[in-house]
Design goal:
This protein is α+β, with helices and mostly antiparallel strands. The protein has two domains: about 375 residues, no CATH class; about 60 residues, Dna Ligase, domain 1 (2-Layer Sandwich), CATH 3.30.1490.270. Helices cover about 30% and strands about 25% of the residues. It has a five-stranded mixed beta sheet. Strand 17 and strand 18 form a beta hairpin. Helix 2 packs across helix 6 and helix 3 crosses helix 12. The two termini are about 25 Å apart.
């Protein structure tokens, strides 16, 4: 197939001179050897494989909700092992510092006392949980599973766009994407040295097991889900199945008078050692948070504070999952680790600072404005693509609550070749690697590459119509070029 592929942005597979990057050469050569009919057939095979696997996500709208298949593109995103090793080290550094930061905030708050992190920013945090003060989780780790979103700018620099430390999702799609590609392109996995991702469920179980308060070779671990109507329910069920643990809802668990957690089973009650919770803090325990919650477990916070059960991620970890806090992460790294960040932040203006607020209001047509705690692409303004009415509305929102907003430049986010219809066209992408922290750290080899399926769109979130690709970390074995 003769592809006339061209991108006006930094491209993940194609270099500035129009040829494939070193790590992508063999893949590019193989894909171009397929004619248009063969390529479309392979895509249909990918769609069937994904459908059989049941890869879906739930979208909520005014009329209700619906399960949708995750759009999948068969042209992989490829990263060289050399670049990935630098990125992995930067992610480990970042999550280490963030866990030290969270631990400090619920302890002595030295970073606040030393004037590195403003007290008013902490006071305005909607995710700081007073109920967690004085708790010291095992290993000092609060965010056991983190998904940090990475984007590449026009000059090739890789930035951290945001950190997801509450209940990050998407890893099941990363793993299923790999299985789909292996079924559809088995010959490529024989010819190219692609680093595996299949060990993630085992790594996740080991991380969770390390949090057990009871010494045991095989502690009782469960995945706590809000239920089948949650947008990520597929992932909750899939991960529980892959780890060989029980998927439970709040009604399946009770806390006894000795602050131990038990699970109802057909054989009676069984003590639970670790809970991988996929429920937001507010709904986790009606005794500690929202009294009207029907999703959580009464007394769960009491059991956790008493050290009778491990919770991942720990309640309160979301204090660092805040886009205003994000802007301080370089300072947080320097404060706790005495190191410069290995992977930089996107330049960010804090609307809570008067001079930066004035800059944002004066240049809102050029900036991306984000609320501090929204996710999924909701509640943000992309200035260059917004109408004057939308920009004026956001100015009012920002002025009314400046602590709740940050702004960033509109990056020329990198693209990746994507099969659109029967043509190959550039589409913008980001990358969400997953970092596990317990008795040791682990970073997925690559991550979930999300794709903005609409031409020109910068929004990659599945809830906004985005899709995904398999991400290949390729060892080029010293190939020149």
């Amino acid at each position: 197939m003769d592809w006339c592929y061209r991108s006006d942005f930094c491209d993940e597979l194609i270099g500035p001179r129009g040829g494939p990057r070193v790590a992508a050469r063999r893949v590019w050569k193989y894909l171009r050897s397929l004619d248009r009919h063969e390529l479309v057939e392979r895509r249909e095979a990918c769609e069937i494989a994904a459908l059989v696997a049941g890869i879906t996500f739930r979208v909520y709208h005014d009329e209700g909700s619906a399960d949708r298949a995750m759009p999948f593109d068969l042209i992989p995103r490829i990263i060289s092992l050399r670049e990935w090793e630098r990125t992995r080290a930067g992610l480990e550094q970042r999550v280490t510092a963030l866990n030290l930061f969270i631990d400090d905030l619920y302890g002595d708050q030295k970073i606040v006392a030393d004037g590195v992190f403003p007290a008013d920013v902490l006071a305005g945090s909607v995710n700081f949980r007073e109920q967690c003060r004085g708790v010291r989780p095992r290993y000092g780790v609060w965010a056991h599973i983190c998904g940090s979103d990475l984007v590449r700018d026009a000059d090739g620099t890789l930035y951290v766009l945001e950190d997801n430390l509450r209940v990050p999702s998407g890893v099941s799609y990363m793993l299923e994407n790999r299985q789909v590609m292996k079924k559809v392109f088995p010959e490529l996995f024989e010819d190219i040295d692609i680093l595996p991702v299949d060990d993630y469920p085992a790594r996740l179980f080991d991380t969770l097991a390390s949090l057990s308060p009871r010494p045991a070779d095989y502690p009782v671990v469960v995945v706590l889900t809000p239920g089948m109507f949650n947008s990520a329910y597929f992932e909750h069920a899939w991960l529980a199945q892959q780890m060989g643990v029980e998927l439970v809802e709040g009604r399946d668990l009770i806390v006894d008078d000795h602050d131990c957690v038990f699970m109802r089973t057909i054989h009676g009650f069984e003590q639970v050692d670790v809970i991988y919770r996929r429920i937001d803090d507010a709904f986790l325990d009606p005794d500690a948070f929202r009294e009207d919650s029907l999703l959580g477990v009464k007394g769960l916070m009491r059991a956790w504070r008493a050290g009778r059960v491990g919770l991942a991620n720990a309640p309160g970890a979301g204090v660092a999952d805040d886009k205003v806090v994000y802007s301080y992460v370089p300072d947080i790294i320097r404060y706790y680790l005495d190191q410069d960040p290995l992977v930089p932040n996107v330049p960010t203006w804090r609307c809570s600072i008067r001079s930066e607020l004035d800059h944002v209001l004066a240049n809102i047509d050029q900036l991306v404005v984000k609320p501090a705690n929204e996710s999924g692409g909701y509640g943000m303004l992309i200035g260059p693509h917004a109408t004057r009415k939308e920009r004026d509305r956001f100015k009012k929102l920002i002025k009314a609550d400046p602590r709740n907003y940050i702004a960033q430049p509109t990056l020329a986010i990198s693209t990746c070749p994507t099969l659109v219809g029967a043509q190959v066209a550039p589409r913008h992408v980001d990358l969400r690697p997953f970092i596990l922290s317990g008795d040791q750290q682990y970073v997925t080899t690559g991550g979930l590459t999300r794709v903005a399926m609409r031409a020109g769109s910068l929004v990659v979130n599945s809830s906004q119509g985005g899709g995904s690709k398999d991400t290949w970390i390729v060892d080029t074995n010293g190939e020149a070029g």
